[in-house]
Amino acid sequence: MKRGTWINLAKFLCVAGLLWLVLAKVAWHDMRTVHRGEAADTKVGRIVGAWDESVVRFEPDDGSVAEEIRPGAQADGSRVEVTPGFLTYVRNIDWWLFALGALCYFVSASFAAIRWWWLLRVNHLDVTPFEAWRFTWIGIFFNNFVPGQTGGDVVKAVYIVKHCKNGNRVAAGVSVLVDRILGLGSLALLAAVVVLFALDRFGDLALGIWAVLLGVMLIGCVAFSRRIRRAVGLEAIVRRLPLSGLLKKVDQAIYFYRGHTFGIAAWMVVGMASHVLSVLSVALIGRAMSLGMPTFEYFVLVPIINIVSAVPLGPNGWGVGEAMFGHLFRTYGAGFVAAADAGQVMYTRGVALSILYRIHLTMWSLLGGLLVLLERDRVTQADVEQELLRRE
After folding, report:
1. Alpha helices in 31-122 (DSSP H)
2. Nearest to 305 by CA among 292, 287, 323
3. pTM to 2 decimals?
4. For residue 6, what are the β-bridge partners?
5. Which of 12, 39, 301, 303 is the most exposed, fewest CB within 10 Å of its CB?
6. What φ, ψ does residue 101 adopt, rounded to 5°?
7. Tens digits of per-residue pLDDT, 297-321?
């Protein structure tokens, strides 16, 4: 078995194990709990209709009479909670809000394509905005459907390299890497700004966010500063590495953007608008599911989740994203739920949101699949392998 196959198998098992651990902690069934002092009487059943109305209809699984429940404090001093299970959140979704959230994602992804087109344009590569948009969506498609080492960015890079046959092939491929770093920097910058308004609640997360932003800034300094490059002996290091010829071309392609530092900085700031839409997409879908998490919290938590989900384990962050949504919703959202086990409630809501949102991304990516079918010069597995093994 090839080494790449073993790596892909290990990734699959890791993602499958992570998803199993995440889903094992989810509340799948609707429950009604009556609290009387220290005692609690819980029944498992099914919520009929909306779960977040002032009166909720609950049908117990034990065959007893259906109940019309008014959650909260009761006249006899008891307190009644109705806790939806995973699927109930999905069944009661507001599809208009969901559609608005989906539209925000589409606009955000299309905006990111314009940023990439600018990176190609400053390299004098003959690529139109529509072509950059097309290859962006093709990359999104492969991010969702092709697990393993290649991923959407590599396929996207191969498409643009094949398209720029008469241009600078290395510069075309490197533009994908630079665009990814710019996107990561804009995302971290958005979270770094937002978290300043709630350091009392998110002080621990702020350190991680600022560390990512500092890392992106350090990459930029090493890439563009002559003094730092000389101080660390970057050129000498590159000469001693394997594939030094190719790495030198890549370094030159990155250093080229030093002449466009204002544009890079501008896109870092403007790119925040794109990420505002991507976070708003998640927030609107969460609102459509009536999850109870305030919008502000999404602008701190979602950038962190997206950054961590970039770890190349499974397609489009499956597994990692669900674990992060569940953990962060339980940690920072429990205070917004009036329930005895508020942490468990918010954990289930976070995982439900993550799964529905990721399914929504997969459906959007089918647009990229359609564009692949319409491509006359499609990228094949052989093209990807050839580009990965290229030595020139």
Report:
1. 86-91, 95-122
2. 323
3. 0.85
4. none
5. 39
6. -65, -40
7. 999 999 999 888 877 666 777 888 8
